Structures are given as structure tokens and as C-alpha cells.
Give the backbone structure.
Amino acid sequence: MAARFPIAPIIKLVILEDGTCNGQLVVVRDLKTAHIADGIAPTLQAAFDDWRFIAPQLAMLYADLNAGRVCRPFDFDHGRCMRRCRALSTGRRYRLPEGCKEDGRAAEAPSRQRRTA
């Protein structure tokens, strides 16, 4: 019986801290060299939302990065990963930045209501 879904290649994805709730999606080679993937998907959530379309493109970027065929790769710095990703990998509790929800979207500003006594 044929597999329902084809086996996808392994792609190393990282989210870098960029001051937003979702961070910036990056493809990483050997945890030393990386390339920004914002031309394919600006965030990991955006990649997941349309995975069947985005995954092959990320896989091609990953293959090109590994083969040295990309323009402007950069040295990967573990310290630039989003704190919640580092916390999840170590099992620590992470407090979301103010203005961010658990699903990564920006929270609505709380309404300021006057209290009447």
C-alpha cells in the first residue's frame, strides 16, 4: 500500500528574534550557517498554514544552502533564537512578551475603561 503522504526531507528551521511576536523564519545548515526564508514564508506559522506549498520551497532553499548555492548566507548565532524556542527546548517556562498571544498573534490593546464608583 502506498504511503498517504510522501516522506519530506529533513529541513532545519529556526525562528530568530526580530522584535515581533513571531520572529523571523530561517533555514539553518549544520547549525553554523543560515539563510533567511522570508521570501518563502515570513514566519513559521505562515509556513504551517500552507505547508504543502511552502515545504518544497523550504526544502529547495535548504538543499541550496547545503550545496553553497545561496546568496548572502550568514553565520548562525544560537543567541539570536527567540527566547520561547530556547525555553521550550530546555523545558523552562517562558513568559510571552507584552502584546503577544500564545498563538503568536498580536494581542488587542486592553481597553481603558473608567471606573465609576
